[in-house]
Structures
1.
Amino acid sequence: MLTQAPRGTRDIFGAEIKKWQEVEAKIREICENAGIEEIRTPIFEHTELFLRGVGETTDIVNKEMYTFNDKGDRSITLKPEGTAGIARAYIEHGMHNMPQPIKLYYLSAPTFRYEKAQAGRQRQFHQFGVEMLGSLSPAQDVEAISVAARLIESLGIENIELRLNSLGCPECRGRYNKALREFIGENLENLCPTCKERYEKNPLRVLDCKEEKCKKIIENAPSVLDCLDEECTAHFNKVQEILTEMGIKFVVDPKIVRGLDYYTRTVFEFVTNSIGAQGTVCGGGRYDKLIEECGGQPTGAVGFGLGMERLLLTLEAQNGKFENKPYKDIYIGAIGDKGFVKAQAVTYNLRKEGIKAECDTVGRSVKAQMKYANKIGAKYSVIIGDNEIAEDKVSLKNMETGDVQEIKLSEIANYIAH
Ligand SMILES: [Zn+2]
Ligand SMILES: [Zn+2]
């Protein structure tokens, strides 16, 4: 027990953390490029926020939240998704008084859901997400979608499809719920037990069911797009028009409903076949009622989120383009006590010049040091002993070619291209 991380959690280190950092750097670059700024919200919030913000009929709230009372007897919940916390922050800091839209992203934010642990699904996982608040225009939907599309493209993810749908405003959705409930009612006995429950509480969720028998029935369900009023239809059409103008490919899929209650109008998913069963790599949509629901003023908003674990799994399954090799610029070997001390100082000074230098801090023999230098992928090495110090000279060895060059100790930095 003591030496094993809790089920559904894991350590990320070594070659794997390099991949995370590579993807994170790409994400930051794309967000900053689109004028989206980072926000870091707390890992836990008042439970009430998620009951309001995520929806009391969702699986997340019903089954998956890590909720506990703290020592002050307040009900606290570990963040099960990223949007509600940002909605809270938007209200708390009066962001509606700043120039709109407010465009924010969060990156590798620890997120917690009590789920069956499996590949790509952890109980503590990490999310990247973008939220754009303060605009009702369909152009804002498209800006969010386009950022996700650029990320997917620049990471080189293939076989991925953007699926688009509109859930309409609450009135349209009400009409659709009614039509859907009627349809489900007619097929109720053939649906799975979970769907029977959903029929009462939230029929929309039936469209999400992964059970084969439910999927089959749902194929013939009425389309939400037939229930949209004029305004919601116009909004959805404009989204498609701008996407087309941008050259971003999409398919309209009326079965996309997303797992959360707060979505209005546009919803979207990027779906791929690369990680076994068909999976959503990234999903999001518009949520115009959320800020109000959480106690703020009516505020148009749109965003998306993606699980970092899933994204990395997809990348690995597809191209494994990560190099993954550890490397260091130079290894500073040492002979004798003076050499040992000098090597520490030389390493420190090279690092100050931006060079990835390593030296012995364990007390290895010279032979073992050189073996180690090979293992960590050092491009160059030197060995410093009494003679080298006295004569201010070292033999700089290119570890790949074996070439050796005599240089001054103080000149190492000049000889290393990095
Ligand atoms: Zn409507
Ligand atoms: Zn079902």
2.
Amino acid sequence: MKKLFKCSICGYVSEGETAPIKCPKCGMPAEKFNELDSEAAGKIYRSNRTNDIHMEIITLAEKIVTLSEEGIEDNLDPKCLAAFTQAKNEAWVIKQRSKTEIAGHIALGKW
Ligand SMILES: [Zn+2]
């Protein structure tokens, strides 16, 4: 596990042997960074893949919304219209559920 340093000004987390010379996000100098302890760093590394999966699910759900809207617009017949409308609504739920998980992870330092 590599060392992680967190910017005390903006919260940006940097990976490396030392803190960055300046924060890539807010531009503050290295002195504003604090090294995360192993528990805090462990949460970030452990949650990395799960957060990526949630983001990919959100992207796919947005694609379902876009496709569903195209199908709704095309409006071939009432059953297709109903199926696309339902798919659009379900994709919204899938997207929001993953966003909720990510928001929870951020609140717990798991990001
Ligand atoms: Zn910063």
3.
Amino acid sequence: MTHHEPQNPATAPDLGANVPVAELRGSVAASFDSTVSELVDLVAIPGIAWDAFDAAQLERSAEAVAALVRSTGIGDVQILRVPKEDGTPGGPAVVARKPAAPGMPTVVLYAHHDVQPPGDEALWDSTPFTAVERNGRLYGRGAADDKAGIMAHIAAFRAITETLGESFGVGVTFFIEGEEEAGSPTFAAFLNEYREMLSGDVIVVADSANWQVGIPALTTSLRGLVDGTVEVRVTGHAVHSGMFGGPLLDAPTLLARLIATFHDERGSVAIKGLQTSDTAALDYPEELFRADANVLDGVELAGAGSLASRLWTQPALSIIGMDIPSVDMSSNTLLPTARAKISLRLAPGQDPAAAMAAVEAHVQANAPFGAQAVFTPGEAGQPFATDTAAPAAQAALWAMGESWGVPAVETGMGGSIPFIADLKSIFPDAQILVTGVEDPDSRAHSANESLHLGDFEKAIVSQALLLAAINAGALGEQPA
Ligand SMILES: [Zn+2]
């Protein structure tokens, strides 16, 4: 594992005076072995929310998580679901609530219990659903994503109730969904149906990653996404490329010219009106990026500004598919039409509808040789940005730094977590904290998924410290 010193570690307030740090750390340590064995038991249940897999295993998974949540003494634990659009049941979510004491805030602890399919089992060094420890890491499907997130919530809650007892007045809601890896098809409907029960002042999402082993991170920005197709039309039907080629360019050539206008000479997105920023707080070393992406020798990186900003706070445009005849099916024809699918990642703060309109305007303005260029809008997803100056984010940064013993860093994510946008739109006043137990070597979704056990324990401690800091007033005055 490569270690890198981040250039700009986040600064956080010192909340330690009001929090029994040593007691919480000791409580987590005392039960850590049993926490890991509970995690091993969860990994043994192959709860996969995809239609092709046995739904009974997903039910078993929900039951097992409900039993673990119940064992914390939180009281009423329910398994809830809402129907999908086609009427079939959505994934089973586990919800449990400890009401807040008068005047105290409520924290919602989110994770998901469904997992990715194992994929090709021949690529695994050990059986996917039998978690085993090797060299300080626990290997198994879901060992990191996201059953460790569930156990971090449960173990932290146990530590804090054991340490603070009746004086822990913060309301806590467990919300462990069961269809995240299937794209959370009923997530928004579920939030709307159980809005009352799931509302809180802070939502802690444990489904992301730390920066490196030994360096904790708060994921503070996620890019949004719009996509769509562009079709270039030149003639009413195909004509012979020898008879007509010369004065007339074919549709793939014109489409290629149009696609070339999406980026400037350096490879930055050239569509006018898109938001962009170069303020990513972290230094992402180029050699690390090259290794992570397996970039071939000689290939130059595109764009301008810091590498982290190019990944996290600037737009990025990719062509992800094309409809033209395959080489094997090619003939001497001047092709009348060609179509490409555009995927545009959006900077935090960008309105997706405005981005979609900007793409459409760009396509119209840059249609080469007067060809008809038709843009058809596709999907749109909101970007996300944490207000890192807000009290909950400050408390989380403090808790991570205290637990790991090194300052936490603020990272972005170039991709999206679609359900975060749903949380934000349905609970606009909640402070959403995106945390996680993964590290760059966790290989979530791939063969040999694993969890670094040392960092797992620190993640639990950090979560307990966050809850204790909120209990001690870190969020400030609560609205009556
Ligand atoms: Zn996940």
4.
Amino acid sequence: MESHSVTDVVAKQNYLIPITKRPELCFIRGEGHYLFDQNDNAYLDWIQGWAVNTLGHSPKLMQQALIRQSSQLINPSPAFYNQPMLNLAEMLCENSRFDQVFFTNSGAEANEGAIKLARKWGQKNKSGAFKIITFQQSFHGRTLATMSATGKEAFAPLFEPKVSGFTKVPYNDLAATEAAIDDQTVAVMLELIQGEAGVIPADAEFVAGLDALCKQHNLLLVVDEVQTGIGRTGSLFAYQQYQAEPHIMTLGKGLGGGVPIAAMVIDKTVSCFDPGDQGGTYNGNPLMCAVSGAVLKEVLAADFLPQVNRVSEYFCQRLSELAEEFGLGAIRGKGLLLAINTGPFSGPKIVELARDAGLLLNAPREDSLRFMPALTLTEKEVDEGIALLAGVLRTLVAK
Ligand SMILES: Cc1ncc(COP(=O)(O)O)c(C=O)c1O
């Protein structure tokens, strides 16, 4: 095996534009639930590419799909059809309430497409209405328009002037949403679980109410399922657990299982792009579509999602035991997008100590830990991770 060392990180990190604080680790390989660093230390990975690696690291079926497709056709250009693109679009539509797909390379780009489609629809059908209601603490991406749509407070002063036309209202507040609707409003866009905000689920009544408001005011309902889609919350799409008929859904992350592909999926009644309105060089390339198709096929297998729900229940049970023992707070989320309030402990401190102990976690807030393991998680890894986490909490208590 090629040798690596942490000095590579030290020596070469300055060649990268610093965009985030990274530990001085360099991951060399991944296998299922585990990542291995430059010294071949193993880490149980509950970040999984940021809720991306649906089937864990480097699963055989993704490797095979990559090899098969790359030896056949990598990119004929987006100006031509290709078979994996057609197959994946069919699979997404046949397994959802939607009819048409536009493929992109990232979740932000899918949301950018949704914003553009809603505005075009408003031009054609609602006298130029263009405003989109989004929610405080939401996250929709890092392009200029999606940062403008995002309700994360830290984004507010950045890169001014932003794209105008986004009205932010408190999440789970139907009255505030209704009050924000005016003649220029064209759509409401939300995450059904606010992931980056710390795993905050939308209330059932709130979503049903939004759906009714959209019908009453002729608005488009857009669900950003970049983080919640493809089985993450225990159903193929999170909207299926709500009483709602969204017009547009965006997907990313788990759709590719680790490779860059995302999508905007729409009800055909709102389809209104003319040729040239939307596109992109890599959109719908057969290599990514073939891999995504293989991942989706696995997620659609009969026992896949029931097992996600079984292991989620077990995970929550083990987390509540931990909460009881160490005085942690509430558990939030659905399926395998879960979070726990860390009570008296600092979330980022736990993350740091857990990493040293061989467990990769994320703290989306000072007071929370988020868990986004591969959907192939079993009770065995849950026990292993909970034992590591308990060890970290014991150390913190002892201090
Ligand atoms: C809900 C949601 N929307 C959009 C995005 C942006 O996706 P990407 O990073 O692929 O652009 C994310 C990423 O975390 C997300 O969680």
